[in-house]
Prior knowledge:
The chain is an alpha/beta fold. It has helices spanning about 5-25, 65-75, 90-105, 115-125, 145-150, 150-155, 170-175, 200-210, 230-235, 265-275, 290-300, 305-325, 345-355, 385-405; strands at about 30-35, 40, 45-50, 105-110, 135-140, 160-165, 180-185, 210-215, 240-245, 255-260, 335-340, 360, 360-365, 375-380. Helix 8 links the parallel strand 7 and strand 8 (about 210-215).
Amino acid sequence: MHAFTNIKKAITISDAFWNVTTEAGLANIVSRNLGDGRHQAVETGHSFVNMSSYSYLGLDSHPGILQAAADAVLNTGSLNTTVSRIRVQFDILKDAEDALADLVEAEVVTLPSCAAAAAAALPLLASGALTGGTPPRLLFDKNAHFCLNLMKPVCADETEVSTIGHNDLSALEDACKAGGPVAYVADSVYSTGGRAPIRDLLFLQERYGLFLLFDEAHGLSTLGRHGRGPVLDALDGINDRTLIITSLNKGFGASGGAVFIGRRHDRRRRELATRFGGPVTWSQRINVAGLGAIIKSVDIHRSDELHVLQERLQDNIRLFDRLVPTATAGDGLPIRFISIGDEDGTVRLAQSFLAEGFYTSAVFFPVIARGRAGLRIMIRANMTAGDIERFAAHLKDVRTVGTEAGHV
Ligand SMILES: *Cc1c(COP(=O)(O)O)cnc(C)c1O
């Protein structure tokens, strides 16, 4: 028992975090959407800029995507098929998957979320169905996303599962040298900041045949040509030893998740996913509104508009980095962590930011190690330079006052 998960222990450790966060008024905020990452709290009428939005390109407020979602529902006349997709599917599901597949030049199967994509893809990989029948030894990066880690016990019933250090290439190479198929499970861009050494991993793939499963939840749309993400950009086309799962709820501005299961038109891989991919086969799919949104978002990804939005995001990241120094400044990723240290100071800072009109995520133990508390910030293309400047000015003010008063 508890070789891979211990939910009871996690509750014991994490409850205090959520109690403090909730009591500080930093959780359970009910808001009206004002568009472009702005909210108005229903209870207080207070407006704020969301500095914790995953919508890195601002596509969640794109009028074209919203219209496409509404049109799709009205044109289809239903929100969902009420039968397993392997038996009957609406044409719009096929259209959305074909559009995505053409964009990323891979065979694509969609699911209601990235977490469902992990639940579909990982057991298949662990079974050996994607590695010629021999189950690969599965090595998870220590910082891999929770939705990947959650599948460890299931995978361990199929093959040998272990966890290695973050970005630990030498542990990975040792495992490859020991022989037999090996698969590495990692995020391409980590939700806590930083990225995978993709080029080095591809070198191990070339040298030893290492299988790679990447979670591209933060990489898709944000990075790469036509927003295909850093993995496909580095690969220059998917191969038989690389699997990508991703969210379509974040940068992509639509809904659901996806598995890039193999080369375009690889029928066998597609059959494996749609027949044996767990949640793929059940009643929940991305609903018709989400599928309409996906088709429109693909159009945007193919157009110059995407490049413009990526450039705006990079401009905002550079402006933020100039005004707010952080450990990962200059890495081109939209996730930043402002280190504060103590928990109380961090919570008070997040509260003062909210009063100033900025929602930030205060994170502290057990989300990160004790004494390492801070604010997690996500930068978007549709933030104004003024927003970022006001944010930085407030941080500077608080820090100056805090230093004088002997805290923060
Ligand atoms: C948000 C996130 C997920 C989960 O995505 P959903 O579509 O909400 O299931 C998976 N992996 C990473 C790295 C994430 O940040």
